[in-house]
Amino acid sequence: MQLQKLERKDIARLLPYFRNQGTHISNYSAGSLFMWNKYLSTLYAEEEGCLVLCDRYVGNRYFYWPLSKDGDAAAEERVAEKIEKFCRENYIRLHFTAVPRERLCGLVLRYGSEVHVSDIRKWRDYLYNAQDFIQYPGGKYSGQRNHVNKFKKNNPDYTFARYTAADREETEAFLQEIAKIQTEKDETLAAEEMRGVFEILPKMEELGLFGGILRAGGEIVAFSVGEYCGDMLVVHIEKAKRGVAGAYPTVAQLFAKEYCTESTKYINREDDSGDAGLRKSKLQYLPVQVVDKYNLAVRRTFDAVSDYPLIKTLRLELKGIEDKDAADFARLARDEELNRYWGYDWHENATEEDPADDWFLQDVRKDFKQKNEMPLGIYFEGKLVGEVVLHNFGYQSEAEIGMRILPEYQGRGFARESLIAMMEYGFMKLSLEKIEAKCYKQNTVSSYTLKAAGMRPCGEDDTYYYFYKTPSM
C-alpha cells in the first residue's frame, strides 16, 4: 500500500466513494476533506476498490475505516488488514478513527484486550429525518415553526435561491462579517473552519457541492452548503447573521425543501465540536441518531515494557547492553561480513561517516525507547558476545527475531541458546502468539540455527527463507 498526500485537486476524483457511502458519517465526504485536509495533513490510497484515508492529529496517524466504492464489506476488511501490515512494516502505531458502529465488534474481536476504544462525544454527527426538516411537524417542532413564522412576518420580502458563481462576491462579503464574529472565539478550529469556508466557494461545482442563499431586505442573511452522500444530505456550512431572528431555522428548512430528493432519507448536520451552545441547538432539532465515530488504539504487550529484562540460560545472560561494552557492540555492528545478512545498514541512520562507538549503543537504545525493537546483549561469563533482537512487532501478537554473534564466539551454540531463551520470553512474558524469522538464502548457517532453535520453515521467495514458531511447537 502506497500512501500519498491528498491534494485538494484529487478530491473530485474520489466523489464516487462519497456518493455511495452508507456510514452516515460526515467525514467521508468531499466537503469535509476539502475544508480540513490542510489542518489534518491527510494522506490517501486506493486499494481493491476502497479508499484509505489517514489524518495526522497530535503527532499520530489515524486511519479511517476503508470505504468501498461498491459497498463491498469483504474488500473493506481485507484493506483494513493491509493497513495493519503497513503500520507494522513502517513502525507506525495502529490507530483507526471514524469507525462505524457496525465495524466495531469485528475490530475488538480481532485485537482483543489490546485495543482501547473511545467514542468522543464532541465529534459525533447529528443525523435527522429529512422530512422533519422539510415540514417541522407536530408539537415537537413548534418552536422551530414559530421562529420561521416570525422571520417571515418580519421579512415579508425574503427570498431563497440556489447559490451560483455569480453570487460569490456578495456571499464572500457576507461571510467576512460572520468571520469577524467567529474569530472572536480565538479558537484554532473556528479560524480553520472559516478559512475552509472561503476556500471552498470557487470549488463547489467541481466537488459536487450546492448552496442556498436566504435574503431579506435584498441582503444575504443566511447561507448553507451541502452535498449528497448515500441516503444523506450532509450540511457542511450553515451561517446566519447575528440578530436576524429566525434566520437559522428558516434557512435550514428552505435548504432541505430545495435539495432533499426522494432518495434523501436523512440530513447530517455534522458535529458540535464541543461547543455548548451549538450542542443545545442541534439537540433541539431532535436528531434520530447522534452518530458514533469510534477511535481504536491498538496496543501491543511490548508497549508496556519499560525496562530491559534479564534472561538467564545455562551459560548465558540476555540483558540490556551495558555502557562499558559500547566498543564491543560497535565492533559487532560495524562487522561487514556479519551485517551483510543482518538486514539493516547503520550507515542509513548515522550522521557521520565514522561515528563514535557510543553512537551504536545509543541508536539501539532509542529504538527500544520508541518501542520499535527489544535489543538484548548476549553475555557469556560477563563478556558481550552478541545480540538477540525481537523486532517488527505486529498487532496480532507476533514479532520477528534476529541474532548475531561476534566472530570469535561463533560455533559454540550461543546463537541457538539465545534464540530459544528469547522466544520463551516472548511467548511467556510478552504473550506473543507467533515469532517469525527470515534469513538470506546464501546464509546457510543461520538457516540451520533457526531450525535447531525449533523454528519451522514456512516459505521462501527470491531472497529469503521464512520461519516461524508458536507457543505450542
Could you please describe the fold and organization of this structure?
- The protein has 473 residues and is of the alpha+beta class.
- Helix content is 35%, strand content 27%.
- It has 16 helices and 23 strands.
- The chain has helices spanning 8-11, 15-19, 30-40, 73-89, 101-111, 130-135, 142-154, 168-182, 188-200, 247-259, 276-284, 326-334, 336-339, 357-369, 414-428, 444-452; strands at residues 4-5, 43-47, 50-57, 60-64, 67-68, 95-99, 115-118, 125-129, 159-162, 210-216, 219-229, 232-240, 266-268, 289-291, 294-298, 311-312, 316-319, 373-380, 383-391, 398-405, 434-440, 456-460, 464-469.
- The strands form three sheets. Strands 1, 2, 3, 4, 5, 6, 7 and 15 form an eight-stranded mixed beta sheet that branches. The chain has an eight-stranded mixed beta sheet with strand order 16-17-18-19-20-21-23-22, with helices on both faces. A seven-stranded mixed beta sheet has the order 9-10-11-12-13-8-14, with helices on both faces.
- It is elongated, with a radius of gyration of 29 Å.
- The two termini are 33 Å apart.
- The mean pLDDT is 92.
Sequence-ordered SSE layout with sheet pairings:
Elements: E1 4-5, H1 8-11, H2 15-19, H3 30-40, E2 43-47, E3 50-57, E4 60-64, E5 67-68, H4 73-89, E6 95-99, H5 101-111, E7 115-118, E8 125-129, H6 130-135, H7 142-154, E9 159-162, H8 168-182, H9 188-200, E10 210-216, E11 219-229, E12 232-240, H10 247-259, E13 266-268, H11 276-284, E14 289-291, E15 294-298, E16 311-312, E17 316-319, H12 326-334, H13 336-339, H14 357-369, E18 373-380, E19 383-391, E20 398-405, H15 414-428, E21 434-440, H16 444-452, E22 456-460, E23 464-469
Helix pairs in contact: 3-9, 8-9, 12-14
